[in-house]
Structures are given as structure tokens and as C-alpha cells.
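**User:**
Make up any protein.

**Assistant:**
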Amino acid sequence: MNDSNFFYLGEDLGMGANKLFGSSGGQQVLSQVATNGTQHLLNATGLRQRQRPLEIKTEHGSFYIGEGAHDYGRPVENLDFDRLTGAPEMRALLYGSLTRYQQQYGPIHLPVVMMVGLPLQMMSGDTAKEYANQVRQWLKGIHTWQADGQEQRIEITEVKLTPQPVGALFDHVLDENGKFIPERASLLKQEVGILSVGFNTLELLVVRDRAPVERFTVGQTVGVRRLLELVNPGGAYSLGELDTLLRGGRLDIESALPVWAREINGEIEKRWGTALKRFARVIVVGGGALLLKDALTRQFNGKAVLSDEPVLSISRGLYKLLLLKK
């Protein structure tokens, strides 16, 4: 596969944010989607005017995507895994992410080879093969859409799939050129834990001698959304609205954070327990890891390594893995 003939992208299909990483860098777009069917106020004297979110038009309709989308249309919050198999809102979110990536780094003219990270639950059990086929089917091919009225087109010529925590592992052991970092390469021959605290899921993966240890590997839907549910008992806000407040430091989580932290620590203890003593290192990633940093550091007795880019680490690692596999 000739490097000059393809454009390589790591794609982390996160429920809290969609993350892309390529040769120029990374981009994340909050996974907020709303159908566009509202009436808009124009020239409202006395009120501050805000820039509307990116509008994506597809064959399935018109959507607002990204931060603030839920303020401008009917929120679409489907957090089950079927969303990732090509639901209309997921397509709009991907197209919005590709639009923002090109706005930041320049247009993508070459066919795209994409390494996609999926939740552990989608890549294990009886439904894993079906999920994989469905994801490949909707991602591969020529995609056209409108972004704020501008025509867009991208061809995804190849789709590779792997569990999301694998991206975190290879982000840690590979450099920006997809080469092994000498002082870290030996970790692949040892037993390493990878902990990802995302928006929807907590994922635990253990790798020994470059193979997964299945009895220590699990995914649970107790990610950041669980924290948001604790501060939203009446359901007055959408999860997207609360997520925006949380990211902006405007959400009071003082009483809920310790409760959620105990739930997370309980799930880790249930799956890993005393086996933690065996692990050479525990790699910690995900937006939730930033919130739980102190609690996780204590639990892992100094073995925890928090990525320098916890949110983008998985997509960056998926990109590096593509370079390694070229």
C-alpha cells in the first residue's frame, strides 16, 4: 500500500465525542446531534446572538451536530450500539467530523484508509461478527453530504476494526511515525492493563504477550453518562446539554463525583482484583479519566500512566497502528 496513494485516519466512534486523527493532528466533535426542524429567531434585540452549530444535510434529512446542537433542534440521543452501525445521526456526526477535520487541516482528496475503534461489547460475543460487517458496510464507499450548504465528498476505500482500548495501547508504545518507542516496546511482551473511561462505557482490557486475556477484559455502560445521570435525576436536561456544561466547568458534580468514582472503582476491583499486582503498567485514557485521575492513581499504586491526550489517545493510537501495518 503506497503511502502517497491513500489518506490514513484513526477513527474513535465515541458516544461523547467523535475523534479523528491523521498525519496533521487530531480533531474531536461532540457527539451531539439534533434534527433541524425548529423556527429560528432573527435579530432578537437585547439578546446575544450565537453562532449556530454545523448543519449537515444527508439523504436522511438535516441535522445540527457538535456543541450546542441540542439548543437548536430536537435532540437525538440514541446510546445503544446499533447507532454505530450506520444510524442517520451517526452518519451526520461522521460527516460533521470529517468537515471539521478538513476545515482545520485542509481538504482530503485521496481515498481514505480508516482504522476504527469499537466498544469492547461490540467486538465480543455472538453478535460481534454481525456488528463488524454492519460497520464496514456503511463506512466503506463514497460519501456525499452538504455542510452548511457546501457540497462534500470523500471515499473510504478500506475499513479496519479493532477494540477501542487497543488504540490506547499502541498510542503508548508507538511514536508519531508508527515506530516502536524502544523503552516501551517490551511492554507488549508483558502483562498490561488498559483502562478507558469514555462517555458511555468503562472498558477494561488486559494484554499479555500481545494477546488479550479475556477473563480480565470487559466493557460496562458506567461511563461519564452515569455521572451525568446522577446529577440529572428528573431528566430535565439532555445528556448532551449536561456534557457541554461539564466540559465548560459549569456543572456542579461535587456530591455526585465520589459516588460515581466508587462505582468505577468497584467495577475495576470486580474484574481485576488482586491481579493488578501482576500488571507491568496500567494505561489510562478517556475523558472520564481526567475526572477520576486522583482516585485511579491511588487504586493502581503508582502503575497508572495517564495519556498526555486522554481524549484523543485512542484515535491517535489507531492512526499509529495503521502506520505500523502499512
Q: What stands out?
A: The longest helix spans residues 88-105. The CA atoms of residues 142 and 191 lie 41 Å apart. The chain is about 30% helix and 25% strand.
